[in-house]
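If you are new to this repository, start here. Below is one unmodified record pulled from the training split, so you can see the exact layout before writing a loader.
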Amino acid sequence: MRIETERLIITEFTKDMAQVVHENSLDEDNRRFVPDEVFETVDEAMETIEFLMSRYESEDGPFVYPVLTKTGDNIGYVQLAPIEEGWEIGYHIAKKYTGNGYATEAVRTFLHFIAGRKSLDSVYGICLKENVASVKVMEKCGFENLFVGVGDYQGESCEIVRNIWKNDGRE
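And here is the target side for that same chain:
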């Protein structure tokens, strides 16, 4: 798979990405908002990449794809993960690349692609309420708010924002 936008490439993982995946996972935002996606060693990152690569041909997911700049810098990922109600979007852009609109560009493009590929009518977006940047990305990408309040987030009771994106059929 390869999706190109004006500034980005969304593609499949390769094993040689383990070092940068490890490095990107260590920033404070990732530790704070998605601690289960922090890889303390390159070996941990490699093990996860190998698992994620094995999921590309499955129907079950998760479907996680690295986001690269057109110059080839690996700056984060976008993902579609199964949840009880259907599917949830996930994304992370490494701290040194934030504030440039990369997350919005990647999520917007990925949503339309993956919804078409998986025949999805909707995708959920769930994040901590304090993760203002992720809330803004979802707003810019057309998600509608369903709930703000205390809810389950990675097995803990937290203040969350729960949104839904509805597929309008665009590519």
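Two things worth knowing about this chain: The CA atoms of residues 14 and 66 lie 9 Å apart. The longest strand covers residues 156-166.
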